[in-house]
Task: structure prediction
Amino acid sequence: MTQQDLATRLGSNRSSVNNYENGTAVPPLAVLVALSDLFHLSVDTLIRIHLAGLRESQLYVIEHGSDVFVKGNEVRVLATTVDAANRENIEIVSIKAKAGYTTGYFDPEFISGLPSFQLPILSKERKYRAFQISGDSMPPVQDKSWVVGEYVQDLGSVKDGQRYIVLTLNEGIVFKQVRNELEEKGSLRMISTNPEYAPYDLSIHDIREIWKFVLYITDDLPGSADNGQIYSQLEQIRKEIGEIRRKMRTE
Result:
């Protein structure tokens, strides 16, 4: 958007916009309100928050309707780390680090101590984190696999049937398929893909963080055990056919 484009939308002129950008003039209240309406940001955010200092993932959250002053919710600035090129890292939360994460998830010092990596195929406008899961409740994701999640700022955006990594008050980190029942019951229905585990409700008050599942990483080749079983079955069939042929020749 050019200065003239912005001036037209604000009902102002290009020289005034230029002065606002250069810091030689302060926008009057009417202009601040017009900016607030145009960019869907509260006046308080425009005045108090140094938007140029936010990272792309944080700007993305604000620009997509999660302005804390507009929404009135308890949005916090997520603790995060960057690499030498100022790109946001994907921090790694191993099984051993889970206990520490449940109490240190908001602590920048704790987060900076986590190992991290980059995955260029993911959007640079989103924030991602990797968690190691344990147990067999979510096949085909296997025990000790790593699940990568995209940070969810607004719980209202949680979609039915999708999988999420959730940091809870009492259970620590859980990985489940979710049904959003926040409006009806004030909770999320947590569902395992393994039918041996019964679904349960997680109150909104017990949720500390939620990450939308993006991908998982495992060192086990999918279907390797099945291939072995298939080979055994084929070998048995081969023997049975050989036995039938042998009997046919003797008869």
Remarks:
- The chain has three domains: 3-71, 90-217, 224-251.
